[in-house]
């Protein structure tokens, strides 16, 4: 909340309310993705199921696509780094 201009120490009620809203949203998205997987006769949820659940919200869907693309770039960079013979220390 601080990053968006809120006080450094927000009210506990504000934190709890935001936590409740975010938790409810995540649960709803997971249920929507599970429905999509169920219609496809699958037991496991895939990334495409979440993308399908977000299909009516182009802004969020675009952000998902952007994050997936960045994940791919990071994975490729790590693979290229590892191929040079050096190892990274895992955190």
UniProtKB/TrEMBL annotation:
Source organism's superkingdom? Eukaryota
The keyword Nucleus is assigned to this record: yes
Alphabetically sorted, this entry's keywords are: Nucleus, Transcription, Transcription regulation
Q: What are the annotated GO cellular component locations?
A: transcription factor TFIID complex
From the Swiss-Prot or TrEMBL record, state where the protein is found: Nucleus
Question: Which CDD domains does the entry mention?
Answer: HFD_TAF13 (cd07978)
Q: What is a biological process (GO) this protein takes part in?
A: RNA polymerase II preinitiation complex assembly
Can you provide one Gene Ontology molecular function annotated for this UniProt record? Answer: protein heterodimerization activity
Entry similarity comment: Belongs to the TAF13 family.
Query: What protein is this chain from?
Result: Transcription initiation factor TFIID subunit 13
Question: What's the source species for this entry?
Answer: Orbilia blumenaviensis
Encoding gene (name):
TAF13
